[in-house]
Design goal:
Shape of chain B: globular
Strand content of chain B: over 45%
Strand content of chain A: over 45%
Structural class of chain B: mainly beta
Number of strands of chain A: 11
Distance between the termini of chain B: 41 Å
Number of helices of chain A: 0
Radius of gyration of chain A: 13 Å
Number of strands of chain B: 12
Structural class of chain A: mainly beta
Largest sheet of chain A: 7 strands, mixed
Radius of gyration of chain B: 13 Å
Largest sheet of chain B: 6 strands, mixed
Oligomer: heterodimer
Order of helices and strands of chain A: EEEEEEEEEEE
Order of helices and strands of chain B: EEEEEEEEEEEE
Largest interface: A-B, 25 and 21 residues
Shape of chain A: globular
Helix content of chain A: under 10%
Number of helices of chain B: 0
Helix content of chain B: under 10%
Distance between the termini of chain A: 35 Å
Chain lengths: 115, 112
């Protein structure tokens, strides 16, 4: 089955700690995205990558970092600089960015909680 | 700037009722328009999309028509079921942009 997997489902962070959220896709998609969802709100874009070894900041990149060393993987690190990290994090991918490839497919999400 | 506005929830209906969730957008040019659905504790799933004016997207009994003149993309379903209870997001993407812009979501609850 093709799809996007995110792990872990729940993650706990202690103050001052960096944590990394995993996102893997086997859809052979070029583009990948990270969103943050807060209760009762829409999604906000953190980072996106249109191709391997390249990524761009989204609307709320401060306190986060990413890498894209492999096409199928796009891990997100929540650093200690992110002062309010408690949220639901969603990873997505799309075949490309052209009109016929633009639909984004989402993983099941990781809920990050601060201890 | 580009934005999506959708009706605030929660929306509570009885089973078999008619559903409308309003969505209007602001964007230059001809963006693609989407409806995504999120079931509790899960990620988003694409429900339907439309890419040009007067296009109708449809899936699982849901429909939405791209109305350029009113900049709207309202979601409708003729007879809702309990299993339709979820949060629904309207979204747009400009052809020159990489990102999708989401509305704030509308929570729908269906009573048996």
């Amino acid at each position: 089955d093709g799809g996007i997997t995110q792990s872990p489902k729940y993650l706990f962070r202690k103050e001052g700690q960096n944590v990394t959220l995993s996102c893997e896709q086997n859809l052979n998609h070029d583009a990948m995205y990270w969103y943050r969802q807060d209760p009762g709100q829409g999604l906000r874009l953190i980072y996106y990558s249109q191709i391997v070894n390249d990524f761009q900041k989204g609307d709320i990149a401060e306190g986060y970092s990413v890498s894209r060393e492999k096409k199928e993987s796009f891990p997100l690190t929540v650093t200690s600089a992110q002062k309010n990290p408690t949220a639901f994090y969603l990873c997505a991918s799309s075949a490309g960015t052209g009109r016929s490839q633009e639909t984004q497919y989402f993983g099941p999400g990781t809920r990050l909680l601060v201890l | 700037g580009n934005s999506v506005t959708q009706m605030e929830g929660p929306v509570t209906l009885s089973e078999e009722a008619f559903l409308t969730i309003n969505c209007t957008y602001t964007a230059t040019g001809y963006p693609s328009l989407f409806w995504y659905v999120q079931y509790p504790g899960e990620g988003l799933q694409l429900l339907l999309k439309a890419t040009k004016a007067d296009d109708k997207g449809s899936n699982k009994g849901f429909e939405a028509t791209y109305r350029k003149e009113t900049t709207s993309f309202h979601l409708e379903k003729g007879s809702v079921q309990v299993s339709d209870s979820a949060v629904y997001f309207c979204a747009l993407r400009r052809s020159s942009a990489s990102k999708i812009i989401f509305g704030s979501g509308t929570r729908l609850s269906i009573r048996p």
